[in-house]
């Protein structure tokens, strides 16, 4: 079992483990390792021990274990299925900064019946990657976390708004891009600050992190809004997983501070 004595709080993450075929204005890259749990862990492991929960196909298990092997990432919560790993296909639009999904290759995701082990359930921080809000809720009730962060997508908001609302209220920090925020807080399309503010105070929700691609990100709380620019880069090669990495860095900083 991993434990880093220099860090105050451990982090548990539950999310997806995927292969990605990605097309951007710079070309096409097949069979990249990805998924919300993977991108989150790569960022959060810079700050603390991460307890990883997700399902992967036996066809790629060894690859993902090798990817995370040298980091303080505990993979005892990784479920391995004989079914192949989900294979996502997407084209990134650099004008709207969204990914247009193409027909994907269904994998083992639908088989996952997540059960948090003791290390994950007792971690002070839990991050729930974008997935069915019903699975998120099943994980949330197993956790004793002091700080819960969650993510969602317009797909889930459109399909099951009530369940997404319930998960937002069960979270302390909600991570959304501006399109997702507008879907969750309709009537404030032109003012993302106002939209985020309307969500605060529902249940335990006390912060909304608003992601805006090349325009950076902001955190909205009852105390106000803190905005940060995107890190300057000459060429954006592939933004896949940027939001999950942002959540990993944000909650990793909370873990290091122990607050």
Explain the layout of strands and helices.
Layout: E1 11-14, E2 18-24, E3 27-34, H1 36-44, E4 50-57, H2 61-68, E5 73-81, E6 87-93, E7 98-105, H3 118-121, E8 125-128, H4 133-140, E9 147-151, H5 154-159, H6 161-169, E10 173-177, H7 178-184, H8 192-199, E11 207-211, E12 217-221, E13 224-228, H9 242-257
Helix pairs in contact: 1-9, 4-6
Rg over C-alpha atoms, rounded to the nearest angstrom: 17 Å
Number of helices: 9
> What helical percentage do the residues reach?
25-40%
For the terminal residues, how far apart are their CA atoms?
24 Å
As a percent range, the share of strand residues is 25-35%
Order of helices and strands: EEEHEHEEEHEHEHHEHHEEEH
- Global mean pLDDT: 94
Instruction: Give the biggest sheet.
Output: 9 strands, mixed
Short recap of the structure:
By secondary structure, the protein is α/β, with parallel strands linked by helices. Helices cover 29% and strands 31% of the residues.
Structural summary, described in words:
The protein has 259 residues and is of the alpha/beta class. It contains nine helices and 13 strands. The protein has helices at residues 36-44, 61-68, 118-121, 133-140, 154-159, 161-169, 178-184, 192-199, 242-257, and strands at 11-14, 18-24, 27-34, 50-57, 73-81, 87-93, 98-105, 125-128, 147-151, 173-177, 207-211, 217-221, 224-228. The strands form two sheets. The protein has a nine-stranded mixed beta sheet, sandwiched between helices. A four-stranded mixed beta sheet has the order 3-2-6-7. The protein is globular. The two termini are 24 Å apart. The model has no long low-confidence stretch (mean pLDDT 94).
């Amino acid at each position: 079992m991993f434990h880093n004595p220099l860090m105050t709080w451990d982090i548990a993450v539950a999310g997806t483990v995927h292969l990605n075929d990605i097309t951007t204005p710079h070309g096409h890259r097949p069979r990249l390792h990805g998924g919300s749990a993977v991108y989150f862990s790569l960022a959060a492991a810079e700050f603390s021990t991460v307890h990883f929960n997700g399902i992967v196909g036996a066809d790629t298990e060894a690859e993902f274990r090798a990817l995370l092997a040298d980091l303080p990432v505990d993979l005892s919560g990784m479920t391995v299925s004989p079914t192949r790993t989900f294979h996502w296909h997407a084209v990134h639009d650099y004008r709207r900064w969204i990914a247009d999904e193409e027909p994907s290759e269904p994998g083992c995701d639908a088989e996952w019946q997540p059960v948090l082990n003791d290390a994950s359930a007792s971690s002070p921080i839990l991050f729930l990657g974008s997935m069915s809000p019903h699975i998120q809720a099943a994980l949330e009730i197993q956790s004793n976390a002091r700080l819960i962060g969650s993510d969602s997508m317009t797909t889930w908001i459109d399909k099951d708004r009530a369940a997404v609302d319930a998960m937002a209220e069960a979270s302390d920090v909600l991570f959304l891009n501006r399109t997702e925020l507008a879907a969750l807080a309709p009537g404030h399309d032109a003012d993302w600050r106002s939209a985020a503010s309307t969500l605060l105070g529902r249940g335990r929700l006390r912060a909304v992190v608003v992601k805006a691609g090349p325009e950076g990100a902001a955190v909205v709380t009852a105390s106000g809004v803190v905005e940060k620019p995107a890190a300057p880069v000459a060429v954006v090669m592939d933004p896949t997983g940027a939001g999950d990495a942002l959540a990993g860095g944000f909650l990793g900083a909370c873990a290091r501070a122990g607050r």
